[in-house]
Amino acid sequence: MSTTLVAVIVALLLGHFVRPLAALRQHGWFVAWLDVLGREGAAFRSVALALGLALPLAALAVLQWWIDDWAYGLPTMLLGLVALFYAWGPRDLDLDVDAVIEADGHEARREAAKPLFPQRDDLRIEGGPLVEAVFRCALWRWFGPLFWFLVLGPVGAVGYRLVALAAQGAARRRLPEGQGRSAATLLGLLDWPVAQLMTLTLALAADFDAVIGAWRSWHAEGIRLGLGHLEAAARASVAVELAEENAYAADGPAQAPALLELRDAMSLVWRILVIWMGVLALFVVAGFVG
After folding, report:
1. Other C-beta atoms within 10 Å of 24: how many?
2. Is residue 40 helix, strand or coil?
3. Cα separation, 25 vs 34, whole angstroms
């Protein structure tokens, strides 16, 4: 079996079933590194983002190249496993969604939902915003690192995570304002192909017509960056799922509508991941992935 597929499967299993290991995903070193480069008066302030990304990724690329032919690919597989595990998350999406569903009361639910809105202050405990948040977080935490790992190996997975850190949260605050915007633009460019593939997979995993219709409506004015088409497709898919559930349900909904939409959004994200893994396995069998 391909070392790539083995690394992906083991990283996913460790992240999901050995959750204490998530404490190893520490990114404070990168925040401190950007702080040094972006500090007022620092010699490298004008190129803090480029230098902050280039040096650690160059070191990782050299290591990735150096061990490429060692010991029948075992060191390469181990490096890929460590890199993908490190880039995954860093928070567990399942646990964050469950915390919102199980929270008691509106204020507790708002507090539990904060990790799902890392870039936004307009946190709303409503069906549409929660569905969009789940899919955005799934892209940033799962599918972005996975896609770039499959394209570029360990450098791709870690590179995506470092760009996401530079574009969001504490790491962005260490950068000059203009470079913070550049980091956000770079993250948008990295997210664009991933979001397109997620939307296509969602069409296969849910209602094809609803997803394609949402995708066409979003792009009616031309191809645009952003995650709007993925968010629109997610809302349309969840609406179809709930309509089908209500058609077969003997009783009314057991939970608030917003929480039902949140639950179905998480279910659809899992379906997308399963399809991605199935396609990767087919590529391995066909010999397209080494």
Report:
1. 11
2. coil
3. 18
Residue 221's Cβ-count burial label (10 Å; 0-12, 13-18, 19+) is exposed
Distance (Å, whole) CA 216 – CA 202: 14
How far is C-alpha 215 from the chain's CA centre? 20
Could you tell me which of 34, 32, 35 has the C-alpha nearest to residue 53? Answer: 34
Q: Which residue in the block uniquely carries the two structure tokens 């083991």?
A: 10
Cβ atoms within 10 Å of 107's Cβ, excluding its own: 10
What is the rounded distance in angstroms from the CA atom of residue 49 to the CA atom of residue 34? 7
Q: List the one residue out of 268, 6, 1, 8 whose CA is nearest residue 150.
A: 8
- What's the rounded Cα separation, in Å, for the pair 169 and 165? 7
**CA distances in angstroms from 249 to 240, 244, 263, 266, listed in the order given:** 14, 9, 16, 20
Contact predicate 226/288, CB 8 Å: no
Taking alpha carbons only, the member of 61, 79, 57 closest to residue 70 is 79
**Cβ neighbours of residue 114 closer than 8 Å, sequence gap 6 or more:** 123
How buried is 11 (Cβ within 10 angstroms: 0-12 exposed, 13-18 middle, 19+ buried)?
buried
For the chain, the residue count is: 290
Joined together, the tokens standing for residue 60 give 């990782």
Per residue of the chain (290 residues), give pLDDT as tens. 466 777 778 877 877 777 777 778 888 889 888 888 877 666 677 788 888 899 999 999 998 888 877 777 678 888 888 899 899 888 888 888 988 888 888 888 888 888 888 876 667 777 788 899 999 999 999 999 999 998 998 999 999 999 999 998 778 888 888 888 899 999 999 999 999 999 999 999 888 888 988 888 887 766 667 788 899 999 988 888 887 766 555 454 455 677 888 889 999 999 999 999 888 888 777 765 55
